[in-house]
Specification:
The structure is a single chain. By secondary structure, this protein is α/β, with parallel strands linked by helices. The protein has a single domain, classed as TIM Barrel (Alpha-Beta Barrel). Helix content is about 35%, strand content about 15%. Helix 5 packs parallel to helix 6.
Length: about 325
């Protein structure tokens, strides 16, 4: 067993949020990080056609793990084809009251109601700007502060701050843990968001060069909502892809854990099937006009193939690391 996987088992003896803090601190120090990345075979490389992102492999780390851009280099070292840092908000915020993170071990799942806890843009940008050139693909996932009066303005602020230092930007409007945030997925609100962020994107591209933008959506959408989001996304003045999806508010009757009724977003194995169905629905709506990244429940190579078959060009995972450790990435890559 790899040292990092053994360490992952040991930290599961800690409460979930404490375990995460310990893990990030260890990664920052280099503890357990491979001396070199897994060999990147040409057959695993992928280029996303709309955004132009060239990935050494299609397996990415989803936002939420490296909220403050502290451990992206270490996670790239484990073999991820790309790492998405954040969600970061303009101002630091503590997030929701604790406890707010729960392992549903029997279900291979996690519930969180973190609430965009992060240290804000200043430190995030400092660390992102210091990364070594050519070290790997790193995205910045931006969000809005809970108390802001203008959610969209916060997204524009985030875009402006990270533009020169990230390889792509994700607009996260799908977290269920910030009141009112998912309302941005509504037709008129989404058109306003994409219009104002699109204008900002075009201006920033003229000033600093092209950078692709993705929109992260929820899995809790019906057919009408999917169609409305797809229509707005295709018409957006500066948008290149969708990440489908974030955590779900649904609670499948199959859940067994004592924590199954906790509030917040559910991720992990129970999210795999419903999120993949939503992904396929978006593929039907957008066709080849936008890149699609599939997220939600990915835990093995079969899950990766299922997301790709549903229309994704790449995938992201996070919750599976809680149970499988970072060696999971090498195992998936070996089977691709």
């Amino acid at each position: 067993m790899a040292i990092a996987d053994l360490a992952a088992r040991l930290v599961r003896c800690l409460p979930p949020e404490a375990a995460h803090r310990v893990t990030v601190a260890a990664l920052k120090s280099g503890l357990g990080v491979p001396a070199r990345r897994p060999e990147m075979l040409p057959g695993r490389a992928v280029k996303l056609p709309v955004s132009g992102l060239s990935l050494p492999n299609p397996i990415g780390l989803a936002a939420g793990f490296d909220k403050n851009a502290e451990a992206f280099a270490a996670m790239l070292g484990f073999g991820f084809g790309f790492v998405e840092c954040g969600t970061v908000t303009p101002k630091p915020q503590p997030g929701n009251p604790k406890p707010r993170l729960f392992r549903l071990t029997e279900d291979r799942a996690v519930i969180n109601r973190m609430g965009f806890n992060n240290e804000g843009l200043d430190g995030f940008v400092d660390r992102l700007s210091a990364r070594e050139p050519g070290a790997g693909i790193v995205g910045a996932n931006v969000g809005a502060n809970k108390t802001t009066e203008d959610f969209v303005a916060d997204y524009v602020t985030g875009m402006q701050a990270v533009w020169r230092y990230a390889d792509y930007i994700t607009l996260n409007i799908s977290s269920p843990n910030t009141p009112g945030l998912r309302d941005l997925q509504g037709k008129s609100a989404l058109e306003d968001l994409l219009g104002r962020c699109g204008e900002a994107g075009r201006r920033l591209a003229d000033e600093h060069g092209f950078l692709p933008i993705f929109l992260k959506v929820a899995p809790d959408l019906d057919d009408v909502q999917i169609a409305d989001i797809a229509t707005a996304a295709k018409a957006a003045p500066y948008l290149h892809g969708l990440i489908v999806s974030n955590t779900t508010l649904a609670r499948p009757i199959t859940l067994r854990s004592a924590f199954k009724s906790e509030g917040g977003g559910l991720s992990g194995a129970p999210l795999m099937a419903p999120s993949t169905e939503v992904l396929a629905a978006f593929k039907t709506e957008v066709g080849d006009s936008l890149d699609l990244i599939g997220a939600g429940g990915v835990a093995d190579v079969d899950d990766v193939w299922a997301k790709l078959a549903a229309g994704a060009q790449a995938v992201q995972l996070y919750s599976a690391l809680v149970y499988e450790g970072p060696g999971l990435i090498r195992r998936i890559l070996a089977e691709l």
